[in-house]
Amino acid sequence: TTDSLPRRQPFRQLVTTRLCPSVIRNEECGVTTQVCKKIHDKRQFLEIKGSDLGEECVIFNKFGKCDYGIACRYSSKHLDAELNSIVDEEKWEKMKIYEVKKTLSKELHSNLRGKKVWFGASYNHLENAGIQISNELLQHRTKNKRAKIESCEGDQQVAESPITAEAVFEEVREEYYCLSGKTRRTLGDAIRGKTFLAPLTTVGNLPFRRVCKEYGVDITCGEMALCEDLLQANASEWALLKRHHTEDIFGVQVCANSPLKVAKTVELISSECDVDFIDLNVGCPIDLVYNKGAGSALMDRAVRLEQMVQAMVAVSSVPISVKVRIGTSESKITGKALCERLSKTGVSHLAMHGRTRQQRYTKHADWDYVAQCREVCQPVPLFGNGDVLSYEDYNTRLRQADGVMIGRGALIKPWIFQEIKEQRHIDISSSERLDMLKRFRDYGLEHWGTDIAGVDEEDD
User: Is 385 helix (H, G, I), strand (E, B) or coil?
Assistant: First the structure.
C-alpha cells in the first residue's frame, strides 16, 4: 500500500447535467421524465457536454461499439445523424469476449444493499469455531420476521426458533440471495520463482497492471479493497476486483479487522468473482486502517489474525494468502512467529515486506529477516518485498525467498519485469516511453470510461 489513503473522492457530476441512461439505450425512462432529473433531450445534452476531446474513441475502435453513446467525449465517429449509437456488429461479435466483465450484478447489488445475502459457509464455520455471530443472525431474523408480520393478517404471530445459523436459514431461505459454492482450486507449487506485481493502493489499477503484463510480469494483484465497503455494495470498491483477460494469474487483496467481515467477503468474492487467489492485507501502515484494528494492526493480535485466516481458508473456493511486514515497530518484530503460525492455517503462500509499520517506506528492507521467515514457514512459499529496483536486486533476493514481489520498482520502470526475463538492463527510448504512456491512457479510458466522469478519473 501507499501513503495516499484515503482515496480521492470520485468525480461528482450534477444530476441535472447528466444524460439519462435510458436515452443512450433508446428506451423509455424507468421513472418517467417528470420525476427523473437527468437530461432526456440529446441536443440539450450536447450543448452542456461541449466539444469532443478527439475524433477516435478507443472503446469503439477496439470493440465496435461504445456503451457511452452520445455521452462519450470522443463520440463523433460512432453516432449517426439522429445521434444514436452506431454498432459494428461484426467487430463486436468477435471482440466482446475480451470485454472486462462487471464484478457486481444488479441482483447481488440490490441484495447486498438490502442485507439479504445469506453467507452460509461463513456462519457455519464461525459458529463451529465458537466465534460470536448471534447478533448478526438476530438481525436477519428480525428483518425477516418484520416482513412476515407485515404480510400477515391481524395479529398473527411468527414462530420463533433457536438462534443458530441452520435455524435462521430455514426462516429466511426463500427471501435471501444464497451464494453458490464452487469447486475448490489450488495454485500448487508453480508460483515459486514467478515475478509478482505487488498490490499497490490507488496506483496498482487495472490499466497499470495491463502495462506490466506487456512487460512480462507473471502474477498480478488488485488494489487493496475494504471488506466493509464491499459488503455494502460500494461500486467503486467492487471495481477494484475487475480482471483483464491478459492477467493469467490474478488475485485480489482485502482488508478487515474481524473474522466475520473477512469471512463473508471472501465467501462472496470466491463465489461471484473470477480470481485465482485472495490475499489478506496485514501490512498497511496507514493510520486510517491501523486505528480500526486492520492492516498492520493485526500483527499485534496474533489470535484474531489466525481466526481470520482460518475462516478465509474454510469458506473460500480459491487459495488464500497473507501479506505481512516484519513487525509494527523495532521493539515489536513479530513477523517470524506470525509466518510460522500462519503457515499451518492452510494458506497457499505468504508475502513479507521487509520493513516495520513504523518505518513505512524509509530505510532499507531487512532481507536477512525475510530469509529467516522463509525457513520457518516451509513448505508454504514466502515472497519477499522491498527495494527491488533492478534485475540484479531480483537475482540476489530470489536466493532469500521463494519469490520476489515488486512494487515501487515497477512504478519507477514497469519494464523491470522484461529486464528480469532477459537478464539485462533496458533503457527504453523517449519514443517508447511516450508510446507506453499513450497505451496507459487508452487502457484508462477503456477501464474508467470515455464519458465526463471517466475522463476525469483517467486524467487524475
Answer: strand
pLDDT digit string, tens, across residues 315-348: 999 999 999 999 999 999 999 999 999 999 999 9
Please choose, from the candidates 45, 71, 51, 50, the residue with its C-alpha nearest in 3D space to the C-alpha of residue 59. 71
Active site residue 284: yes
Distance CA 125, CA 136 (A): 14
Choosing from 284, 339, 373, 377, which is the catalytic residue?
A: 284
Share of the chain above pLDDT 90, in %: 73
* The three grid cell numbers given for residue 378, joined into one nine-digit string: 516451509
d(CA 39, CA 21): 9
Task: Using only the alpha carbons of the chain, give its radius of gyration.
Answer: 24
Helices in 86-218 by DSSP H: which ranges? Answer: 89-95, 106-113, 120-128, 134-151, 165-172, 206-214
Q: Distances in Å between the alpha carbon of 440 and those of 208, 249, 404?
A: 7, 21, 25
Distance CA 270, CA 103 (A): 11
Position 367 scores a pLDDT of: 97
Q: Which H or E run contains 61?
A: helix 58-63
* CA-angle at 388, arms to 384 and 390, nearest 5°: 140
Residue ranges of the chain whose pLDDT lies below 70 = 1-13, 32-34, 144-161, 458-460
- Residue 454 · residue 448 · CB < 8 Å: yes
Cβ-based burial of 376 (10 A; exposed 0-12, middle 13-18, buried ≥19): middle
